[in-house]
């Protein structure tokens, strides 16, 4: 049933059970001063959450400093979401917290803004005497680390779109403290720079992977990572594979147990899904968590309700060409007035991404500029910036990019193989349907006949209505008969490039 505004207007195809979509619509209604519509949306969100979902006037009502609240609004986060409201109340009073909320619901800002709000500006020491960061954020992948660094950089007054007149995110609209820094320690080169040449000097916030942070904190030339630490956050807390867990536990122990005569830092764990209870109990027993408040918003393991889920059974060698044909068909069916398609395609590995990049660039008929998101080198920064700034509309990614990345207006997600489990599917699908997205998302998975039972098992576990798609035809002979020589030639080129 479609929701009705208080004055009786239809809300069109708005999904009445999708909290992300409803929150986006609520923020837009308030910005447009359509308060009747906002009231209806607020009431529906209250029903979904079982509590008070009415938004406060702004971030300042959550005890966020004026400069930080203003900055959040300027860079596009005008009103706090439900998880942001609830998390701020817990974090701002200094409690340890375990936060679980659905993909796309605003989890990253939910812990970053209140943690930044609790830190002292300026720091206790002068910058030249500042021994280490006040806040450390642990991330599982370099891609997520880059995004987190850029978000905090913007909150600290940095401009990522310099030179655009009137851009509300530019540095001239910033009113907060000056001279505070955020740094990422996300590869070996950055570890060496941090240990040997003062690159982390006077850094207020450090973002890093567990291995890099652990290496940074040990001899020789150990960096005093925890000397001034007031808070530590672990994002995507269930995402750390076995080879990262030892380093993560080392960092937690350094922060919470092995600092002599220093107050224990605040610890915040965050994820769309959480690790098993025995893992969290282990953290408590080790002293890494103390009287932690567990905050759950929505159901764990729930895919945003507004997404459409499909699958296509294909032979392995034909996956690329049929994915391209289906994407063209999707765009045609959207109509000329629809927003341009923005596509994420997940492949199994870095090698598969490199192998698919050139054929896709040739086979998309120049309708999309392809950016490839790889876990190593400079590509993550370049690829994320290109897609974020709409210089690329097609992002080819590996499974590591499924966690946490907040990329604007993703309309289509394609899986070239079924994800390894339901959690992986949830995170890939969650790149679409995020709060603030103006488009609904379509998730399509290409499987062989042998892979189909695996995918259907995932769909059953997540309670998804997953429709089967027929294979789209090339229609080359029909194009020739109708005189569409260029289209027929492109279809033949596809066969050559993509098979």
TrEMBL record:
<keyword id="KW-0378">Hydrolase</keyword>
<protein>
    <recommendedName>
        <fullName>P-loop containing nucleoside triphosphate hydrolase protein</fullName>
    </recommendedName>
</protein>
<dbReference type="InterPro" id="IPR050547">
    <property type="entry name" value="DEAD_box_RNA_helicases"/>
</dbReference>
<dbReference type="InterPro" id="IPR014001">
    <property type="entry name" value="Helicase_ATP-bd"/>
</dbReference>
<dbReference type="Pfam" id="PF00270">
    <property type="entry name" value="DEAD"/>
</dbReference>
<keyword id="KW-0347">Helicase</keyword>
<feature type="domain" description="Helicase C-terminal">
    <location>
        <begin position="323"/>
        <end position="477"/>
    </location>
</feature>
<keyword id="KW-0547">Nucleotide-binding</keyword>
<feature type="domain" description="Helicase ATP-binding">
    <location>
        <begin position="88"/>
        <end position="292"/>
    </location>
</feature>
<dbReference type="Pfam" id="PF00271">
    <property type="entry name" value="Helicase_C"/>
</dbReference>
<dbReference type="InterPro" id="IPR027417">
    <property type="entry name" value="P-loop_NTPase"/>
</dbReference>
<dbReference type="InterPro" id="IPR011545">
    <property type="entry name" value="DEAD/DEAH_box_helicase_dom"/>
</dbReference>
<dbReference type="InterPro" id="IPR001650">
    <property type="entry name" value="Helicase_C-like"/>
</dbReference>
<keyword id="KW-0067">ATP-binding</keyword>
